[in-house]
Structures are given as structure tokens and as C-alpha cells.
């Protein structure tokens, strides 16, 4: 199973929703709180080109945000991405 990296903020409801879905999928999640680690915010922006959280990577693939993650789930593609297929 691929490791999922989630750049997030503790109070963000979209981050909570994304992490909840990933937990239900029993995904291995590495969470990076950009409020606790401000230097990581600049890294997230550099890598994704986006300023909003969450920003999610499955392995080396940038998925996007919460809506993008749920769109993958709705299309049936999330499980294969998590499996590394």
C-alpha cells in the first residue's frame, strides 16, 4: 500500500474529512501540520502550486485537495491508487 502524505491544519474541516476517508481505507498516512511546521507550508506550496489545505499525495502522485480525493473515491479509482496499481 502506498504511503499517503497529507499537508493539513488541525482546525480545517476539509482536512478532517480527507483524513477520515483515508482512515476508513486503512491507508498509511503521514500528516504534516503546516501550522506546527511553518517551513512545510512553503514546501507544500512549492510542490503543489496551491496554498490551500489539505494537499494530498498518494506515493509520488499529487492528488489535490479534499474534493479531489472524494472524486477519486466516487469514480472507483482511489483503492487502486492506494494499492499502488
Summarize the topology.
Layout: E1 3-8, H1 13-24, E2 28-33, H2 38-48, E3 55-58, E4 61-64, H3 66-75, H4 78-83
Parallel strand pairs: 1-2
Antiparallel strand pairs: 1-3, 3-4
Briefly summarize what is shown.
One of its GO terms (biological process) is cell redox homeostasis. The chain contains four helices and four strands; from the N terminus they run E-H-E-H-E-E-H-H. It is α+β, with helices and mostly antiparallel strands.
**Major beta-sheet overview:** 4 strands, mixed
Structural class call reads: alpha+beta
The helix/strand series, from N terminus to C terminus, equals EHEHEEHH
CATH overall fold name: Glutaredoxin
* Strand composition percent: 15-25%
The count of DSSP E runs of length 2 or more, i.e. the number of strands, is: 4
The end-to-end span amounts to: 9 Å
Kindly state the mean pLDDT as a whole number? 96
State the strand order across the main sheet. 2-1-3-4
Number of helices: 4
Poorly predicted ranges: none
- Molecular shape: globular
CATH homologous superfamily placement: Glutaredoxin
Count of domains: 1
CATH class: Alpha Beta
Function: Has a glutathione-disulfide oxidoreductase activity in the presence of NADPH and glutathione reductase. Reduces low molecular weight disulfides and proteins.
Protein name: Glutaredoxin
Keywords: Cytoplasm, Disulfide bond, Electron transport, Redox-active center, Transport
Domain Glutaredoxin: 4-63
